[in-house]
Amino acid sequence: MQATVVTATLVGVEAVPVEVQADVSNGLPSFSIVGLGDAAVLEARERVRSAIRASGLDFPRGRVTVNLAPAPLRKRGTGFDLPIATALLAATRQIPPDAIAGVAVVGELGLDGSVRPVDGMLAHALAARERGLGLLGPAAGASGVVGLEGMTYRAVSRLASLRLGEFEAVVPVRAPPSAPGASDVDFSEVAGHFTAKRALEIAAAGGHNVLLIGPPGSGKTMLARRLGSILPPLTEDERLATALVHSVAGLDPRAALAGIRPFRAPHHSCSVAGLAGGGSPPRPGEVSLAHNGVLFLDEFAEFSPAALQTLRQPMEDGSLTLVRAESRVSYPARFTLVAAMNPCPCGFAGDTERHCTCPAPVIARYQARIGGPLMDRLDISAQVDRVDPDSLLDAKRTAEGSAEIRRRVLAARGIAVRRRGLPNARVTGRALLKDCALDDRARRYLTDAARTFHLSGRGVTRLLTVGRTIADLEAAPVVTAEHLAEASGYRAWEC
Amino acid sequence: MASYDRSELHTGDAGYPACLAETPRPPRTLYVAGDPSALRLGLGVVGSRKATPYGLACAQRFAGWAAARGVTIVSGAAYGCDQAAQRAALAAGGRTVAVLGCGADVDYPSGAADLLDTIRRDDAVVSELPWGSPPTKWAFPERNRIIAGLSAALLVVEAGLPSGTFSTADHALDASRDVLAVPGSIFAPECRGANRLIRQGAFAVTDVSELAEDLRSCGLLGALPDGGDFEQPQAAEESDPVARALLADPMRPDDLARALAMDIIEVMRRLARLETAGVAHRYPDGRYGPGPRR
């Protein structure tokens, strides 16, 4: 007696189809699973046996063999529990064949026969939809999946419901697509910090990476946290891509599906694998969880140099490839980096009130920890200073709210996207120069600036790309000397 | 690695610099890397290690001007003002002597290795510590005594509070040498030390004609032949309120915007304009202020 059930295993953010073939034959009672499963897959034997019994069904007597095809592909995770149980029940004719017709099956089982969610439900759903199948899976944790267009989702919360072919309706929990960045913080709460706020506005509009430098307690973290409140919402494609990574990592994908850009803020003790992804089985790191959103690295210079340098590939390619002995996995990782750091180890270099105790070479070494190649990828550097109490009280009345800033950001991003279909930060080289349409005066300013500030080729590019965004914020078709002049105020720090 | 002469001068030797012998505590032995005849009375120029462009500009301007007129510039090769002064002296084709707080053959600070090599080749690097001595904390205040002793006048270009330049100034007074200081904004912490020296009786130096006067009075400079040697590279009268504000007192863009009740965007744009025009400079701490004209 044989039966086959379709399921999938996760490779990166993709669910790769796997067939679960069950064979029940006469012989000494045994239960073996073949087909390169990891420890979690082999443990499925105990869960499946108990769950079937607890559900009032019969565990087949005799020789039970389960094969996971294609056999050479390594299978991971607990999502095979439900497909294996289903295949066994189908092979022994305990469930109606139409219960599993036209669906892929995924889910973990409890010993009591309950069906539990697994990581990557969204990936499983997408894989099933791509092959024209529905998905049969747990009722809990499926809310992010059922809102998918053209998706049939059959939800079960207990294995026993399969026998009767009873499926539960799952209400799609999906926030309205146009929900603005539901953020509980707002720029109206930030007094002073004009330069830094302007820098973040430009960063949000153009998708530029930002470095905030300032003494401890000056408000770098506070400012960075509010960046989320002025970012444009995720586009339809971005929503799915971001939600997919979150789903695979076991996070709730609903915020991303609702269009809210992720904001990830790993601690500076974060390991290389934590930041870039890795482990066995491989999991996406913080750079991937920040896909299409913001990666905020506070105390930038305190991150291990190895961790920092792993940022370079994703910042260049928008994805990160983990190459291991037995696997090669790619995770998407296109994020806006917001880095914050103190100017020196003690934090008070350049502070007008506190005395900095660091010798000059120590300051230079501290700032050099970031390294040129990474520094080159930070389009905007902005100084964040402690706001004096006067201005705190003074500016309370006038501080502009996030909604107002966001309106300008959206307009500017709209202009950029209409021009190239990309945010400005991703337009480079000849295309960028063409987009800037510099006049003679702007050209002259650019050569002056390059000479005065000793700009490298990449420095000039940064000036242009930031200048383009500043022009977009004014809806100006060409980039003028004024725009470039402002952009040069955000150039990298020299020590 | 350039090759250079090494010599040791003892108190009482013929070659031992007379100006140093008359100080209260002359070093018993001077280890000289380079040309011992370079050790004659000069102008000491010292200032902060963490100098602002303002301090660097002052060091360059005054040291360069004096060196071009045959005055030896004496300093400590430290980061910031010291190095700026000594490099400016070399660039002006003048002579300069570096006094170290380690062996005269040791490259310290390491960032000054090229500068020290040049000085050893053309002029002299000197120390009272034996060859190869590593730098130690206590050696530097003592080294300041030698800088003061080799200086007919000591010019403090920029000093905060507290500052090591005070020890040099004290030694200069002990050796009855003149102390000169360049004043700065009363709001800038980097200028507090120099301003205090002036308060305590140092001569304020605000342009090269004043420096020339002081150098003449201590005998470093004869009468100047042309008398009109004081071309002022000062900026023409600035009409831009942003420029005027920050030339008076280095400020951050945020503070400028608030003080002038201007939009931050407008301030940023004007600052960049002033920077490319060479009027304003961004300091390492994010403030904008005066500095060397480019």
List how many beta strands of chain B DSSP finds.
11
Distance between the termini of chain A: 76 Å
Tally of structural domains of chain B: 2
Gyration radius of chain B (Cα, Å) is 20 Å
Share of helical residues of chain B? 25-40%
Q: CATH topology of the largest domain in chain B, anyone? A: Rossmann fold
Summarize the entry for a quick read.
The complex is a heterodimer of chains A (495) and B (294). Chain A has 495 residues and is an alpha/beta fold.
Notes on the structure:
The complex is a heterodimer of chains A (495) and B (294). Chain A has helices at residues 39-54, 81-91, 121-130, 143-146, 161-164, 194-206, 220-225, 236-248, 254-257, 272-276, 286-289, 305-309, 312-317, 360-368, 372-375, 389-395, 402-420, 429-436, 440-452, 457-473, 481-488, and strands spanning 2-11, 14-25, 30-34, 63-69, 103-105, 108-109, 115-116, 134-138, 153-156, 210-213, 263-264, 277-278, 283-284, 294-297, 319-323, 328-332, 336-341, 380-383. The radius of gyration of chain A is 27 Å and the shape is elongated. In chain A, helix 19 (440-452) packs parallel to helix 21. The longest helix of chain A is centred in the last third of the chain and has 19 residues, at 402-420. Chain A folds into 3 domains: 2-164, Ribosomal Protein S5, domain 2; 187-421, P-loop containing nucleotide triphosphate hydrolases (Rossmann fold, 3-Layer(aba) Sandwich), CATH 3.40.50; 427-495, Helicase, Ruva Protein, domain 3. With 495 residues, chain A is α/β, with parallel strands linked by helices. In chain A, the strands form 6 sheets. Chain A has a 5-stranded parallel beta sheet. A 4-stranded mixed beta sheet of chain A has the order 1-2-4-3. A 3-stranded parallel beta sheet of chain A has the order 5-8-9. Chain A contains 21 helices and 18 strands. Chain B contains 11 helices and 11 strands. Chain B is α/β, with parallel strands linked by helices and 294 residues long. In chain B, strands 1-2-6-5-4-3-7-8-9 form a 9-stranded mixed beta sheet, with helices on both faces. A two-stranded antiparallel sheet of chain B has the order 10-11. Chain B folds into 2 domains: 6-217, 3-Layer(aba) Sandwich (Rossmann fold); 241-288, no CATH class. The mean pLDDT of chain B is 87. The A-B interface holds A 192-195, 198, 213, 343, 349-352, 356, 359-361, 363, 383, 385, 391, 394, 445, 448-449, 452-453, 482, 484-486, 488-489, 493-495 and B 49-50, 79-80, 109, 111, 189, 252-254, 257-258, 264-265, 268-273, 275-276, 278, 283-287, 294.
